[in-house]
Amino acid sequence: MIINILAGGPEDLLPDLTEYNEKNTVWVGVDRGVFHLLKRKISPNIAFGDFDSVSSLELEYIENSVSELRRFKPEKNETDMELALNWALDQDPKTIHIFGATGGRLDHLLANIQLLMVSLNKKSQAEVSLIDRNNIVFLRSPGIYTLTKIEAMKYISFVPLTLDVNNLTLEGFKYPLTNHHISLGSTLCISNELISDYGTFSFSEGILIVIRSHD
User: 139-213 maps to which CATH number?
Assistant: First the structure.
């Protein structure tokens, strides 16, 4: 199962959602993201939010258009995105794409990147990523991984999310590494590139943010 979540971030940063609208995909709207989906004639299967970012007319349209609407008070312990992501992970999907979660407010961006930890903490098998027009962002725990070249997003960065990442090895990259230690705040592994159709990275301790980008 693939679950696509659309939050209410800037519309100009959204990729072409039709490329992700595969058969049997489950769509989840988050706050103003519900309105963005409906404008694109995509009916969300479920929606979450306090809906403080939509007008009264837009909220009425949402209420009349979405069969399962979970509305919350603005004063709550979780963000709307956290509520939606927890629900999505409980469905045991293969893949979760999160759109509309970058750009705009920096506190929202940082919170959404850190929310990716929820999947690791739950030991979910789902591949969870934030996607916008220019970037794909995901987290990895210790292990060995393969990355396939994406011509449209040739830059690959590895950013520590934890205090230390140990024994980082990059093979098949323009700037390789062997059993290297990087610490929180390091910019050593920014803007690397694959030199063939695929490459591998591995590490033994810590959490890495992996970012695939284009200019």
Answer: 3.40.50.10240
